[in-house]
């Protein structure tokens, strides 16, 4: 491999050495017991938990009970007796602990896209009439490297609220924000490169201009400490099916800072966000708490599957998760450096720990080799994913990925690239 | 009971007669075999399927397979190999058969509220610049008796698109629609009274003014034939957890008439509604088919639970469902007339078949007795629900409700009202 920090092919590529090191790292891993709480098979190295997390063992039995007893036997009574009605906030509080949000800040429900829409429109409305010279803040800034849906939804929010939208590289966002800026929408971790952005600094910089900031935590929630409350973040969204292992398409979450909840003017004021949802009043009076982010009837089966999936986090410290995440990605980069023929891939993931999420993306050369390389990797039991045109993406989930798997993945990648073109 | 068609107390209230009649009706019921496909207990008469449908027996095993094998073993591969990615349209087609929509008109996903938002905003955009004298159509009409969330969401759509909103009783809608009307949002069946509105006539009347119509089918889908394609309906939404038995908070559906799909300009253009969702392009190019109504990643567990729940419909003819539904509500009204002391309740559900959905709502006198009456009914094993201030609501699900249960429910209601105040 050619890496930005090390252009030369590393001399030592003896698998024995790195395998031994992997074994030692696994033996010393403070989180090693967590792997047993997931359904995994030793034939496959699953490095796609940044797309869909593995199944926690607690989920099937819990979901069977939700379906068979709560729905099947109690039926309508479960809305109160089984706590269905309050599940969006209850599960939200559990997610909150993992992203540094105190109780009562988060609701779970809807997709990330829908939550981006609520957050961006609500943020624009918080800034109305508050810009320079009394003019409305009418600009939405969006991370130029954003996952596409955030950009599409932000553009729709701009169109509907009479704002203009401007895509800006994250590095330029602090300078770009100004008195016309209503809100900046930023991805905490870039979904392609795995670059981690500086949430505290960027939040402070955007706040200094009087604007709001919405963070998309899809690729950081459950992978590293976030500190939403501590850094005064206004609004945040994120999905729960990546590092939180909530299941395919599990409901997303929406964070609204406590003091902003009474000012959260939702563009999707469904009956669930009404201050008195069962009053069936003809006009909408917004709920003042985290319920302000709800819309329609919560999707109970998926929500309670997520609830069960969150059990694995009960005894987990995010600091330990972050430490292992960095150790895994460091080790993968070293192994790839050792095993992969020079010139075939180059890492686009930052070397600096402060700028790295929990994935590594390797740019393939030639670009056309990327898809075939990933297909062959999967055939050989190493599951990452391919993001066109030329990225090979590997996600590392500290709760279940072992260093032994990391060594095997890099070694297999080296073998595939050696076989394919040599 | 006092009913609009019959002010006098019926002379015959011999339970033996009505029980015998119930037994004969059950014996002749063409749908009687369907009940065995649901989890029900004979101790409870469940007349709340218009709020949450009972659990179809096929669901638990299917969901266990989706969780254990598709998610647990195949993981990310299931997006293609298990057909997850195309499930919103595939399940949509199955719902389509039940509401008179051909393949490729419906997607399943999001909540009803979110789908109302998409439909109303998209309808307004279809009419832009098309009103009288070249002026924009800038008025949204909404059924004055609507389920509240539809009104809240329509008001939000109006605010965001620069329209005004006007609530009009359904009976006046045809006259109220005019050259400024962009869209009318109407409930097919009133959630309180159970009144069925005339979909073909109202659709034609609104179309005659050049406006669009959005039908909310929450209380009709699975209860009676709808005929969306046949009547040229523009857009429709509905939930799947009432008569379609999809489970608590199961994803809702959105119908977009075939010729309108290329013009469906969604206010929630997520990556799933992109013409090339995996191209990750920075700009949104809308999908031309039913995918135009998708937003974010589909909620697979709930969606496939619904898919399994729809199996019960495979051999069911909606005409038979409608016939039994009317027979059930007719019989309930007769039994209530016979058993309930005069003056204690009056039906607010229309007597005419053409104006009746699949529920009966009884207005209690005095109003304060309603909550206690329903609580006591539930304690005695008859589950309906109470809608404040004074409505006792009973839903009849033709696939599993028996005439014997109807007789028991009315008899128990009579006993409760007799016990409570006599």
TrEMBL record, chains A, B:
> What Pfam families has UniProt attached to this entry?
KYNU_C
Q: Which residues carry this modification: N6-(pyridoxal phosphate)lysine?
A: 242
Domain of life, per the record? Answer: Bacteria
Its transmembrane ranges are none
**Enzyme Commission code(s) on record:** 3.7.1.3
Which cofactors does this gene product need? pyridoxal 5'-phosphate
* Swiss-Prot/TrEMBL catalytic activity: L-kynurenine + H2O = anthranilate + L-alanine + H(+); 3-hydroxy-L-kynurenine + H2O = 3-hydroxyanthranilate + L-alanine + H(+)
Q: Which InterPro entries match?
A: Kynureninase, PyrdxlP-dep_Trfase, PyrdxlP-dep_Trfase_major, PyrdxlP-dep_Trfase_small
From the UniProt record, give the pathway where this protein acts.
Answer: Cofactor biosynthesis; NAD(+) biosynthesis; quinolinate from L-kynurenine: step 2/3; Amino-acid degradation; L-kynurenine degradation; L-alanine and anthranilate from L-kynurenine: step 1/1
Function summary? Catalyzes the cleavage of L-kynurenine (L-Kyn) and L-3-hydroxykynurenine (L-3OHKyn) into anthranilic acid (AA) and 3-hydroxyanthranilic acid (3-OHAA), respectively.
Against PANTHER family, the record matches this protein to:
KYNURENINASE (PTHR14084)
* Family statement: Belongs to the kynureninase family.
Q: Name the chain's protein.
A: Kynureninase
| Organism of provenance | Streptomyces hesseae
